[in-house]
Amino acid sequence: DTGVSQNPRHKITKRGQNVTFRCDPISEHNRLYWYRQTLGQGPEFLTYFQNEAQLEKSRLLSDRFSAERPKGSFSTLEIQRTEQGDSAMYLCASSLGGGGGEKLFFGSGTQLSVL
Amino acid sequence: QQQVKQSPQSLIVQKGGISIINCAYENTAFDYFPWYQQFPGKGPALLIAIRPDVSEKKEGRFTISFNKSAKQFSLHIMDSQPGDSATYFCAASMMGSWGKLQFGAGTQVVVTP
Question: In this predicted structure, what is the pLDDT of residue A1?
Answer without folding.
Answer: 52
